[in-house]
Amino acid sequence: MSAPSPGQASRPGPTFPGPSARGRDGSEQTGPRLRVDWPACQAHGLCAELMPELIHVDEWGYPVVASGPVPEALVAQARRAVSSCPTLALRLQNSR
Fold this sequence. Notes:
This protein is of the alpha+beta class. The protein has 2 helices and 4 strands, in the order βαββαβ. The protein has a domain at 33-93: Alpha-Beta Plaits. A hairpin with a 5-residue loop joins strand 2 (55-57) and strand 3. The radius of gyration is 14 Å and the shape is globular.
């Protein structure tokens, strides 16, 4: 059996510092979340350079994105990282 390719490997994401993705009342926090379009990603690493608080790269250079919503204070920076991705592989999706 062969190892999964870097673009398809399951990657555990970093966690945000501070509170979890649940509010004080136990409800899930909502807000935009960073997502990667794996087939489009070519591991340039620009997203990790622009958003080191939420994204780091794995040993193959592919992004590992923090799970949970993007903190409000970082949304503008996340939008910049999304618009700067050379392959348009990084997305900022609103929670449902």
